[in-house]
Amino acid sequence: MEIRFPRADGKEVSGYLAMPRDGEKSPGVVLIHEWWGLTDHIRRLADLLAEEGFRVLVPDLYDGEAAKIGDVEKASALASKLDFDDATKQTVAGAVRHLKERGGAGTRCAILGYCMGGAIAIKAAVEVRELDAAVSFYPTNPNGVADARLIRVPFLIHVSRVDEYTTQEQYDEFEKKLKAGGVHHEVYRYDAQHAFMNDERPDKYDAHAAKIAWDRTLRFLESTIGGHSAAGVSRPGTAPIP
User: Is 19 exposed, middle or buried (0-12, 13-18, 19+ CB in 10 A)?
Assistant: First the structure.
């Protein structure tokens, strides 16, 4: 459902909330969209995470605007206007607090982001004190958004071996920083293209890689922030993203 929630500075912003069967006591996930914006694809991902036992809040970082998936010109224009510092320290931090306050004492919360959202997940893992874990899928500019050595929470990253936006050398550098900082981390590389999780991009989507990455993500979330017993394994015979 569409909701309004307060940023860290008290200003209200919009987002999409997906609720699990167990309700407010479930662990929280702040899901950060790709550079297309808050699309139906991202809403479906939020719904799938909710089915696995997580409360999922997707902040609308473009304040009601979005590009049609594949419209690179509009997506680029929207992303270029986004203030990453403000989005992280105000909107993301507010989303984390919102989920934790609704869940009550002891509630844990992770961030999960794709592409542009994957970069914000890295930045939030350094700067948002309330987070308990972070997951980043094929982030753009992974070494430019924050110093990975300063990541404070368990961190999982999924990357493409044929990513047209980020070189393997850049990912190598990022992984070295994780190790240098003593960050509890998991790094997985896939023989699939950038955006391999997005089934609305048939030229990029890789069902095999997506299923493996999805299962690894569920196991990571369950081990770091909790979840019900169904978390960690995709339903037999079904793709993780229908």
Answer: middle
What is d(CA 110, CA 130) in angstroms, rounded to the nearest whole number? 9
Beta-carbon contacts of 72 under 8 Å, excluding residues fewer than 6 positions away, are: none
Does residue 237 lie in a domain region?
no
Range of the domain at 39: 2-225
Reported as a single tens digit per residue, the pLDDT across 80-131 is 999 999 999 999 999 999 999 999 989 999 999 999 999 999 999 999 999 9
The pTM for the full model equals 0.93
Token pair, residue 170, equals: 């850049």
Residue 73 φ/ψ, nearest 5 degrees: -60, -45
Write down the pLDDT at residue 178: 98
Query: Considering the domain boundaries, does residue 239 fall inside one?
Result: no
Task: Classify residue 230: in a domain, yes or no.
Answer: no
- The CATH number that applies at residue 24 is 3.40.50.1820
* Band of pLDDT at residue 228, cut at 50, 70 and 90: low
The domain total for the chain is 1
Q: What is the pLDDT of residues 33-49, one digit of tens each?
A: 999 999 999 999 999 99
Domain membership flag for residue 97: yes
